[in-house]
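new request in #modeling-help
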Amino acid sequence: MLAATYMKHASTRCWTKNLPLVTSVRTSRRTFILTALSTAATAAYSFVSPSISLANSLENGTYKPQHFQTTNERELQNLEAAKSNKPMFTRPEPNYPNHVPLYTFEKAMLFLGSSLGAFLHPERNEFIVALGESTAHPYFLNLLRDQMLSDPVGRQILKERPNITSTSLDLDHLSNLPPNTFGRTYVDWLHKEGVSPDTRVPVRFIDDDELAFIFQRYRQCHDFYHSITGLPIVREGEIAVKMFEFLNLKIPFAGLGAIFAPFNVKRRDERWRLFEVYYPWAWQCAIGCKPLINVYWEKIMEKDVNELRKELGVIVPPDMRQLRKVARMRRLKGLTN
Amino acid sequence: MLFRRFMATAATTAKTHTSDIVIIGGGPAGLTLASAIKNSPILKNLKIKLVEGGNLIEPLEKFNESPPANFMNRVVSLTPATISYLKEIKAWDHFKEERTETYDNIYAYDGITNARIQFDCPEIATMCENFNIQSGLFQRIKELNKDNVENPLEILDKTKVIEIKSDEKNKWPVLQLSTGDSIKTRLLVGCDGYNSPARKFAGIESRGWAYNRWGIVATLKYKDDAFRFPTGWQRFLTSGPLAQLPLPDNWCSLVWSTTPELADILMKLPEEKFVAMVNAGAKLAPSEMEYLYKLAAKNDETLMEEISWRLNLFNSKLKEEEYENYPLEIESIVPNSRGRFPLKLSHADTYVEERVALVGDAAHTTHPLAGQGLNMGQGDVKSLVKVLETSTERGLDIGSKFALEGYFSERYPANHVLLGIVDKIHKIYSTDSSLLVMARSLGLDAINNTPFLKDFMVSQISNK
């Protein structure tokens, strides 16, 4: 009787203990059957598959009997097989000199790497360049292209595709121009900042060659934007110009720079100047200004610079170097920022 | 005595004829109906008259004897169903087949995204000049009249219908012609186009809307620089589709449906610039076309240069396998072959009324983008003839609405569906809102890659 009660207890309390044994046996039997069937099917298929492929090749007319071949024919066949073993993915042809066609995942990696690098080290040119090209999606460049095509001067620029180098601009001639001309202003700015138009890296990662030219033109005209507004090449000046470019040309790279770069600006007075002086200036200037991509800079070198500014609607911001000097002097004197 | 003689002559000039059927309109619909009725053994002894306001017989005879060297600018696409019916009534033998072009491919692509659909079916359609159709049918009618001497078909051309009245006694329509005669008829068939007087007489309302588009037609010649199978090309620009339809010998017929403003600009352009605009319209993006339209509006000298620059740039970017996605460029145009006509949708409330039936454009008009307008009319003719045969066999009065209603009930739904589909295609492709553009491009690509859907569409287009 004790045994009976124990058995009852066992059955009510430990009923689950018995089951696994039964189900595991059942499942293991089921899996065994399934595996056996699938192995049998695979074996049967592997037995029949040569016949199937032979029948297919007979139907297609590509049947080549192997054993009646001369050495020559066999070699030719091997050659053909080697040709048809082309890789699945081949890199497309370059569309213009310096073009490096990238796959989409490579462009994505370029974007990630260069965005981080440009944020942390904006003084290194390769990050800025790579960030600009990886974010220049054809959608934005097409908008810019349409804008250029609907403007007569922009159309001329696209037709002639001018390239700006120190020789094409003839810097010596420009430095001899009267001081109120745009050309003289430009050369003076180059000397003041210590840069040259030759340092612009050619575009490499944009696929369409017309869009690559547009981006190249944007890059080359960057200095002109600096000189017509008078902003220096320090980081603060670059951020201000980037904001202005973003609002005027709607290039995403400029927008990214304008939005994220100030996070890395540590000095409080610098940040204050950016947000209180230069960003409002950029907004106001870009609204009233004509799209600067449509300006044929090489042809207006001898124009009076203030007249040019009025024509384009460009407002000159407060002299940044001056403001920075004042702020530095205040800091040195121990005054609060 | 003089007075009486005057009255005598007055009495002989104005005659009232009676006939079984009077067909108003000598276009393809009217002529097909006439020849089909005379071809039918059951109906061939009916007294039939065909009244046409313009000059019909002379030009058709002239076309038959010495056809013009160039193709005319009014060309239609005939479906296999239409051609098999024309063969059935034995009119096809009289068509000048060397002036028709049977093609196997239709290639339609989006103007904004270049999503495309390609139909590849043997003899999907045949291009044929309107005049060729009319002349072929006219020759068939002459042949039938030779065999049917007691009851030949009378064609009264250069005869306008001044008024249609209802006879007081039996309510038969009485047509007052410009020659002074009048005809009383058992059945009046209106094949007289959109502004059909027959439809107005019957009091049938026609509903629809004008598309606010004009269809520009012209005859153009392709450049001989590459090979293309004869293909019907259609690019859906936002202003309307630009269609190039193949004619023999590397010629093509243009049908460019566009807005009234652009139609004015294009029609005023000199012929060389017009050809360049057609080439640009087949390949360039809409934003570029906007600029070109602005130049064309001023008839600017730089237009040709701009177009050749943009086209060369476009062509240089095409890969090898993409060459065949665009039609060949046009080289020249037949002088003075540009014409235009307004596009509208309309569908009559009913095709039959007591003593009146409507066939062809009198009953329905549509957008030319699917090439179905004339073919719907041919289908109408086939159905009407069948209904008339059935009614005659049963001894019914062929002019009674009861006898004719079978034609209306057979043709109205089919035509309505086709009109609706063509209208929706026009509406879908008239927008440039990016959401719709993406949706329609995705849909088009999906259909292009689904074989059974394409087969279904081809069977609907060609074998109805």
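bot summary: Chain A touches chain B at residues 95, 146, 149-150, 155, 159, 208-210 (CB under 8 Å).
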